[in-house]
């Protein structure tokens, strides 16, 4: 079971502003906030997300093949999360829409540090 996901950043204030906007859509706020690390979520709730300056002091880099998937309730939520991300400095990696015929609806984007995320939901295949 995943407890939280941490993504590296080279600009914590910029990352914090980006994830503050996404977290607000999910109805959560900062649960930990230090000079080098910020985490969003609810204590005792589902998995959270964090942004951190790397502990080893080296630059943060993007993992090749690594992606964080944010589950939402509806295609409208996928559209909204993608729009929020774009408005806060994300780059588009795939506009919202159905993927295949199995009811998977998703949008893909990269945060300002280049970390890949998606917002997705499962809907009835004919919905």
TrEMBL record:
Residue intervals of the VOC domain: 1-122
Taxonomic source organism: Erythrobacter sanguineus
Listed GO MF terms: lyase activity
Listed name of the protein: Predicted lactoylglutathione lyase
Pfam families: Glyoxalase (PF00903)
Keywords assigned: Lyase
Domain of life: Bacteria
